[in-house]
Design brief:
2 copies of one chain form a homodimer.
Chain A (H helix, E strand, L loop, with lengths): L6 E5 L5 E3 L2 H9 L3 E6 L4 E5 H9 L9 H12 L1 E7 L2 E3 L2 H7 L4 E7 L2 E5 L1 H7 L2
The first copy, chain A, binds a DNA duplex (30 and 30 nucleotides) through loops.
DNA sequence: AGGATTGTGTCAGAAAGTGTCGTAAAGTGT
DNA sequence: ACACTTTACGACACTTTCTGACACAATCCT
């Protein structure tokens, strides 16, 4: 498999877990089930942990003792959460579900190295 | 685990201790429960002791006989406190709680190598 | 020493997270 | 089109984590 591709409609269970589609499952199992999930403008981006690390490197030049740099760092880190695919499922923490407006139905969109989680209605609005 | 990530809302107990979220707990247990807590502009930064040491090194080059350098050093050290995670909790000394305006509700923000403690209302103002 | 204040360990109930399984639905090969 | 395999879903039981409370220990202050 080359990367995360395509659109899937999945439903969350009563605890807010999503079943990873079989095609993505293979990728995550082979590589690593470790993930970082990050809130963007109204939707979630899921990074396999390696991909996240690559993005994080771009922040190393910022100075943690500088006020405005620190604010930028915080924005980035505060929105992120580690998670993991367990038993073929990913638990989406309540805060993240909230931020992305996810109810039961979730649309999952492959973006090659990462994939996104959308509330169906929001995705529809955005793509217009 | 990659580092401290995400935002958590936790509440202090009657003695001013905070329950460390399970995700952070793992990191602190593996590395070391020894911490240094430091007051910044209205919030607290918590350094795992190794991370503190690394930051301290950056200050060694400052000149102990230079007045303004010395002021910066003093500011840095005077506001720092050693503390420790015990029974999965961290006691926040009264002085620090005071300085950060922490009441019962505290927002905990992961910053990769360190994490921050905020009074919810102050964080909200800052992030705007 | 006695009493107040501050720090520490532990526990029980509630809430959140996790594993598993049966059934339903979708996909596959012939 | 049919039987078979795989995948998705919902449900349930179980485990872990979070919280507030209590009891006790240590320290400080007269």
């Amino acid at each position: 498999m080359n990367g995360f591709l395509g659109t899937y409609s999945v439903s969350l269970d009563d605890k807010g877990r999503l079943n990873v589609p079989a095609k993505f499952k293979g990728l995550l199992e082979r590589d690593s089930p470790q993930l970082v999930m990050c809130v963007m403008d109204g939707f979630l981006i899921v990074f396999p942990q390696r991909e996240w690390a690559a993005n994080e490197e771009k922040l190393y030049h910022l100075n943690a003792f500088d006020k405005s740099d620190r604010n930028r760092l915080r924005e980035f880190y505060a929105r992120a959460t580690e998670c993991e695919m367990k038993s073929g499922k990913i638990l989406i923490p309540a805060a993240q579900r909230e931020a992305a407006g996810l109810k039961k139905e979730v649309t999952l969109v492959g973006m090659s190295k990462t994939f996104e989680l959308w509330a169906p209605d929001r995705l529809e609005k955005t793509s217009k």
